[in-house]
Amino acid sequence: MIRDNAVLRSEIQLVHAGVADGESLVESLRRSELLVPSAADGAPLTTELDGVLWVLAFTSEQALAVYADARGAVTRSTYFLTLPGSLLQDVALPALGRPGGIAVDLGSAFPMLFPAAEPVVEAVA
User: Fold this and answer.
1) Full-model pTM
2) Which of 6, 19, 20, 41 has its CA at a distance of 20 to 30 angstroms from the CA of residue 111?
3) Could you report the per-residue pLDDT of 52-79, keeping only the tens digit for each?
4) Which CATH number fits domain 6-115: 1.20.1530, 1.10.10, 3.40.1390, 3.40.1350?
């Protein structure tokens, strides 16, 4: 069973209400453990929109089920991993090799897109 992601869900709802703190939102994502559906080979399920590849992630089994029911993209035979948001941001997104981000709770009342941050060039840092 995954850790309760109530803080992340609450932060996302604040974004939808127009009163969010971006820094707090990203920190909540990084501290959360998300369900990431994947293919049998372990690759995360993704969706593409306007050239951006979004890794699908969900804050609960219920949110994953809502998406699965709406899209039919996830079935009972689909594997899923429980991964920290920080790992998705720091490892999975750079591994995409193209513009990407994390799509949290697609199909729910409060979906959220987290685009990958632009890498800091070492010469500037």
Assistant:
1) 0.84
2) 41
3) 999 999 999 888 888 888 776 655 556 7
4) 3.40.1350
